[in-house]
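Supplementary Note 3. Input sequence used for the single-chain structure prediction.
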Amino acid sequence: MNARQASADELSITDMNLNTKFDHIVKARLTPVLAAQDFKRKRYVYERKQGDVSWIVEVQRSQWSDASVLDFTMNCGVYISGVVSTFALRPEPKNPKIIDCCVGSRLGMLRPERKDKWWRVTAEDADQAFDDRVGEEVCAEVGSIVLPFLRLFPSQTAVAEFLSDVPSEYRQVFPMQDAQRSAYAAIIFTMVGDARAAPALQSAVAQAAGTPLESVVARLDEFMRTGRPEK
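The predicted structure, written as discrete structure tokens, is reproduced below.
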């Protein structure tokens, strides 16, 4: 095969610019691993739909990356239509991202040390083996940390139960505020017709008292009890 016949995926990483090297790691390494788990990719966001629950895996590039250095990390979460949008009064996304999830975490916060984990790709690095090792490490972390976390949430009820009583080992999972967690749980319990919706909403109101979330939860309480938002 001559050079003109070579495909983009067959180009040596040493011939790629920084962005292309990064895309190669994502597409050639991460995408096949997640595709095998039924995730569909939209640029740097992967979504697996199962009924009314979607698992989200998102590759986040650092805002401080430049032409010579690119840092990235991984986020994961659970998206349920109507939860965050109801709480925050914002439109439902066409393609959900981590910001739209009702449960989510940085990969590093799920590791035993509970510290951010970032990977670095550099323009000066001409070692394809190094970039391959980065890709392999990312995939290993996804397989051993991200996917087991997401499997805690096979259903809407499982998500609501988690939010109602977040285990101590997951206290760094967002949302961080107890009132917001309880409010999300109330919304989801309502969706599935679970009687635990009312106590969850009462908990949210009590937890939000005297905090910046007080008015937000009060509006939600009024809406869920009467069908009319508080004015």
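The first strand starts at residue 40 and ends at 42. The chain has seven helices and six strands.
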